[in-house]
Amino acid sequence: MPHFENELYLALVLSTRAHAEILSIDASQALAMEGVHAFFSAKDLQEPPFRNCHGIIHDDEVFAEGKVTSQGQVIGAVVAVDQITAQRASKLVKVEYKDLEPVIITIEDAIKKKSFFFNSPKEIYQGDIEAAFRSANHVLDGEARMSGQEHFYLETHCTIAVPKGEDDEMELFCSTQNPSETQRVTAEILGIKSNRVVCRVKRMGGGFGGKESRMLVLSVPVAVAAYKLNRPVRCMLDRDEDMMVSGTRHPFLGKYKVGITKEGKIIACDIEIYCNAGHTLDLSGAVTERAMFHFENAYYIPNARVRGYICKTNLPSNTAFRGFGGPQGMFFGENMIREIASYLNKDPLEISSINLYKEGDKTHYNQPLEYCTLQRCWDKCLKTADYFNRKKQVEEFNRQNRWKKRGMSVVPTKFGISYTLLMLNQAGALVLIYDDGSVLISHGGTEMGQGLHTKMIQVASRALDISADFIHIAETSTDKVPNTSATAASCGSDLNGMAVLVIMSKYQNTAFDYQTCSS
């Protein structure tokens, strides 16, 4: 991110309690420190046109007001001449708390206290599970859990906000997977129109979903400070701060009952899925929904009921992470397969094989499989991997070695690409062709190390039939391509690549003609 003359540095003041009433905030010592310019808290956003809340259900506060519901929740921000001064001053802000009960940490705590975001669970139903359970040869009960996971991208959350000095214009340089959302929420909090805010992203040092929504925890306070002080303000979180405020992969708990035939074929499943969302909703509704879509993995279950509960706990809000609930759901399905195999004393491979989806089956979310080559892929994988011979070798090795063991497993995977909310499956691009034959492309996707910009150059190069040396990708910016979807859901290359391709197909000969003339 660029440096600006006269810029200031911001440091966050974070909650040290998981659930407490805020009795008082005293920033006098911090403000008395040399080099400190200002302290901001919720009271600075109480007067219109400012706002203090954002999020899907407006439960994410820019600055905690009245009480905190998680350790690491942002209470305020100190702005100073440099990073060290700001961080030292933030430690001098005294916050007096009164602890509140209960403090809910785990999914089990939430179940016991009935702490959920919605009164009733999400539910997907297919077939007649009661009749199927009655006809089953065996009925098994079980549960499985998956813990959270830290994103640990190399570059922590960082933002610099630059007020332009007139017409309330603001420029944000932000490490975000979702520039349009950063633009929209910043404008909403500042009480200005989105056309006054431009969000720019050259590249990120990793994202993995952790910068799809939680970047707002930092970017909005930075924008507020810059707007109030009318000076550029920068902040880059230290690793410990980033881990406190940004959330993790959602921990999940699955409790299931499964009905099977004597051969091990699943004919019924009733499963409850619990998601630890943290203290605000964030994207947990969509994450839970995707886990519900994936609980059966690649296996056909004709009679199924899946219920999803979004647990409200006193943890930092968990958020998008690679797979977005899908891995947790698939884990439950594979756990069922192995429990069935253990119960029937059979090889898990055999149980997997007889339960795989086939062409003509319908998923529990009512999607017909009109073209399904899963069985063919499965058989070819076993053959090309020489699975059965290698398994015999593994078994022989294990018989001959007491302390060293080997194992072998084959697991199918079903994963839904793109957004469930169909309106998000869109993209845009701006292509400029100059009179020397060079091409400048801006598109709606963000580069975070996955090579998206390189792919867009390749698409343009082939479509225009010119060398990639003549093509350059500019930064992603909301004043070039508006209303973009987040670069997420494993579809950034497909969506933005098609946007570039559609444009290039209209001007296929233009760049080549310019190059010919200029040479």
Automatic annotation (TrEMBL):
InterPro entries: Ald_Oxase/Xan_DH_a/b, Ald_Oxase/Xan_DH_a/b_sf, Ald_Oxase/xanthine_DH-like, AldOxase/xan_DH_MoCoBD1, AldOxase/xan_DH_MoCoBD2, AldOxase/xan_DH_Mopterin-bd_sf, OxRdtase_Mopterin_BS. Residues 1-101 form the Aldehyde oxidase/xanthine dehydrogenase a/b hammerhead domain. Gene3D superfamilies: Aldehyde oxidase/xanthine dehydrogenase, a/b hammerhead, Aldehyde oxidase/xanthine dehydrogenase, molybdopterin binding domain. One of its GO terms (molecular function) is molybdopterin cofactor binding. SUPFAM superfamilies: CO dehydrogenase molybdoprotein N-domain-like (SSF54665), Molybdenum cofactor-binding domain (SSF56003). PROSITE patterns: MOLYBDOPTERIN_EUK. Keywords: 2Fe-2S, FAD, Flavoprotein, Iron, Iron-sulfur, Metal-binding, Molybdenum, Oxidoreductase. It comes from the Eukaryota. Its cofactor is Mo-molybdopterin; [2Fe-2S] cluster; FAD. Belongs to the xanthine dehydrogenase family. This is Aldehyde oxidase/xanthine dehydrogenase a/b hammerhead domain-containing protein. It comes from Cryptotermes secundus.
